[in-house]
Specification:
Elements: E1 3-6, H1 12-23, E2 27-32, H2 36-48, E3 53-57, H3 66-81, E4 86-91, H4 106-127, E5 131-140, H5 155-175, E6 181-187, H6 194-201, H7 205-211, H8 221-232, E7 243-246
Helix pairs in contact: 1-2, 1-8, 4-5
């Protein structure tokens, strides 16, 4: 059985990706940050559907924790799947913070950098020796780093996601010698818990976002999760070094 590691799978896009990947017959190691309950619920949903999943804690902003996380992954692979390698990695964990450039603090900038760019860089480096040749990686970016999604307040967040897009291409270049494909996806406005449940707290923004979207609604987690699953799958075996916008045609 193939095995995937998905970070930030306690809700939203990561949760959907974990469930969609498991539906295709792949075992799942998923991580959660502050929301342990959500991580366990994702794992339970996968197992209820007949899949296999293990939830592990991980703060992708703390690179010092990565070696211990890798040891946990080694144990889980051996105990659950009788394997010493895994096949797929989805670097999805993250958070959003908006502020105009004039109001952005160094503390906010550094936290965004640690979680959104440094985290995926060094977590991938840490897990790479355990990854099977011929595997695949998907990095969750954002259309805020593209011309179509340019909105005031996202300068720091989008700068890190833009860096992740560049990193994805370099990963694709360097890991191609092992047959590992690497792509990034750039969701548009998606109904998740990002930015402290912004969609729950400010439902009035949804019609305006839907009006800016060619397909006439905001995204749902499964719109993105299914794309992630598809990029990992055999159907996408000839696709690498791409950044795919998954936004329903935002600002088209």
């Amino acid at each position: 059985m193939k095995v995937a590691i998905i970070t930030g799978a306690s809700s939203g896009i990561g949760q959907s990706a974990a469930i969609q990947i498991a539906k295709r017959g792949t075992g799942v190691i998923l991580t959660y940050g502050n929301n342990a309950q959500g991580g366990l619920e994702t794992a339970a949903a996968i197992e209820k559907d007949g899949g296999t999943a293990v939830a592990l804690p991980l703060d992708v902003g703390e690179t010092g924790d990565f070696p211990a996380f890798r040891r946990s992954v080694v144990d889980v692979l051996r105990d659950t799947w009788q394997r010493d390698t895994f096949d797929y990695l989805v670097n999805n964990a993250g958070f959003a913070h908006t502020s105009l450039i004039e109001d952005t603090t160094e503390e906010t900038f550094d936290r965004l950098m640690r979680v959104l760019l440094k985290g995926p860089y060094f977590l991938t480096q840490c897990l790479l020796p355990l990854m099977e040749d011929g595997g695949a990686i998907v990095n969750t970016s954002s259309n805020s780093a593209m011309g179509s999604g340019l909105e005031p307040g996202y300068s720091a967040y989008a700068s890190m996601k833009g860096g992740l897009n560049v990193l994805s291409r370099y990963m694709a270049k360097e890991f191609s010698t092992r047959g590992i494909r690497v792509n990034s996806i750039s969701p548009g406005s998606t109904r998740t818990r990002i930015a402290d449940d912004a969609f729950e707290r400010f439902p009035e923004v949804i019609p305006a976002l839907a009006a800016k979207t060619a397909l006439g609604r905001v995204g749902e987690p499964d719109d993105i999760g299914m794309m992630i699953a598809a990029l990992l799958s055999e159907e996408s075996r000839w696709v690498t070094a791409q950044n795919i916008e998954v936004s329903g045609g935002y600002n088209l």
